[in-house]
Input
Amino acid sequence: MASVPWRQPRVILWATVVVVGLGFLIALEIAARGYGLPGPMTNQVKEVVLAPKSGPLLYASMALMMVVLTWRERFIAAGAAVGIDIAFFLVRWAVDAKMMFGNGALWVILACAVIAVTRRTGRERVLLLKGVGLGLLLVAGRKTGDTWLLITSKTRPQVLDQYVATADHALGNPSWLAGRIVEATGTVGEHVLDYVYIQLAVAAVIVALYQLRHVAAERRFPGHHLVRTFLVIGLLGPAIYMIFPVVGPIFAYGADGGHWAVADLWPNTPPPITAPHGMPFDEITPRNCMPSLHTAWATTIFIHSRRGPRVLRYAGTFWLIATLGATLGFGYHYGADIVAGVVFAFTIEAALRALDRGWDRSGIQLVVYGTTVFAALLVSYRYLSMEMAEYPWVFGPLVLLAMVSVIYGYMRTTKLWEPKAAPVRQPEPQPELV
Output
């Protein structure tokens, strides 16, 4: 098989992305160690032997990697992962250590990387390395996210929750309403929403597996799929956290905030309308509310599930609704965060689709419009929060209209991007036979 021409522009681009990504991980590692804690690279290496933080995530990552394998190779890989995990389970049970599965999946992913380098050549090597990279990126995204949350809590002592809570009056304080509804559902509702909230990445993998189901047969990845959007949202979102630090109503206005909270108001008593100002908060709670990345991720799952079978479309709809219920009902986000998260998701999805098909005027206009609306929302929350609270019947519909306009613009533009079906050729009339 012919070797890959390493001087091609696309190969150079991927090599640059790998180098930049590695540099980013090293920078986060150094930043975390500056605060006396292990960074994403150290935490990932620990999971080769120690109990992982999330076993389902590691197995979901292995499933993503296996899209490049044949069915026989998939069965071998899955069996090896389960066997390794059983061995780890027995050892941990014997020494009374923390119990968690997932090491086997990580070992299989790393083993496939070794096989790609030592046993594969040419395009087959590149394809397997892409599969390994896809699986490891999902895991690395989780680790880098945890480090980002640490950095936000250490570097942003002042939070802007009062501004967002004041602006949220224009939307009717949905977090307070959702919090009371979740309380009324009891433990069953709480457990269902909690599972949906925690296992969001697993739901994304299920949709991605459907999109990537032909990779093994076609020996190539599609130009655009859910994992790309998922990772870009996780990469860019924390930068907004640094610009607009917010901890969430359960901390700023609830019992979980302790003496740092304004008052113990959530979810029974909406905050009063008073002039907002920045407030100091502890160095532990992440400033990870603006925008709601869980909402952004659930939105992209919903978008990408639209092309699947009916059961996948229903699952995508359920996950979006349940995620919105969890983010608001558990007091993790305000309504303003949700709106910003939806706009954020559609803008990034539009940018990646435009990049895949080649930038043109419609793609540029859509991305610029989404970015402008997102920036306008943040500026309004920060500098017009009092006006938004005092005139909710004006600003509430305006905020929702801005979000809907981005959604409509995305749907209208991407519909024009869809390939037109060729017209069915009509049979020519035949002369009547005598």
The chain has a mean pLDDT of 88. Strands lie at 158-159, 279-280.
